[in-house]
């Protein structure tokens, strides 16, 4: 460090990370083809061993996560689902029973049996049970609870008397949407609150006045999409902020001028793909509207005199037309949110998808299984979950619709690296989401 006397701590850390990352990249580039092919394989067996072992037994070092046990279930089981696998009946039943003991008598899940119900662990428990699927898992969820967390200011509190932030809003709305209990009471004033958290940079902070952050940007954007108010955000500046968070390492950072981290692969790439699909849907609406508003010959004749008519007001008609397009856009969003995931064209991702995958596989993946934040850090289940989720988003970012699998060229490494597609707004595997939605629509 004596060579770097004028650097701040952050600059020094960034310098060291860049050194590590570019050393890994140059070693990779200098290796022979067989080594390169092996190095970019996800190594499913090792990933599954690491995940299954964690589900069966965790050592004493995990005691600090005692209030996050449903999260551990979610991180592990969702990772297993992304790899296209599931657990045996015994592990499934044990997980359902355990989460049942975390659930309070009037709904909501605590971090462990007997702990206070919290929106974060409730989200983790619900997503775990959706990932397991089946009547036993899904019917174990008590759908009351969320209304108690609603604040008169529009947002949500994470628990009774707890803090209110964008994360809490997303957790509540994601749960409500999957459980099919989303209504006007829950969404009242929520859009205004999220809007007040979008910063001058374009990203979204945790609460009004806070710095834009990847996790909160995902939460805010997903919430606005779920309550069909996404067009109220400044989407251009949001997109601009996110794409500029992909650093020279090609991984994403979570805040401006902060270090790259594998978990932001999901928190930043998912909003990019979501925005691309929104823009695609918007383009389709515009094309449809323009097609519908093509002047007919008789219109030309009828209004031919307008060209010389000083009373005619073209600006007004343009405004009406723009307003109509916006209304059409909103109408489209309200009625056809699902279509955003079904009716999109194949597009080039707005981020560098293949080099993002390269960062995650070469720098975050641990050869023994599991993923980490960055080189030199230990692996953990949180980073394994969000690195795999982000890899899935990057692989599927080019796909035409949810039923179109990625092409070979969309996936770094062989097609054996292909991961299941996630639902961008909930981060559960798409077919598990579809089955849960079917179940909860039947359960009304
Ligand atoms: Zn991280």
From TrEMBL:
One of its GO terms (cellular component) is protein farnesyltransferase complex. It comes from the Eukaryota. Its cofactor is Zn(2+). One of its GO terms (molecular function) is protein farnesyltransferase activity. It catalyses: L-cysteinyl-[protein] + (2E,6E)-farnesyl diphosphate = S-(2E,6E)-farnesyl-L-cysteinyl-[protein] + diphosphate. Residues 293-321 are annotated as: Disordered. Binds 1 zinc ion per subunit. Belongs to the protein prenyltransferase subunit beta family. Catalyzes the transfer of a farnesyl moiety from farnesyl diphosphate to a cysteine at the fourth position from the C-terminus of several proteins. The beta subunit is responsible for peptide-binding. This is Protein farnesyltransferase subunit beta. It comes from Brassica napus (Rape). The gene is BnaA04g11810D.
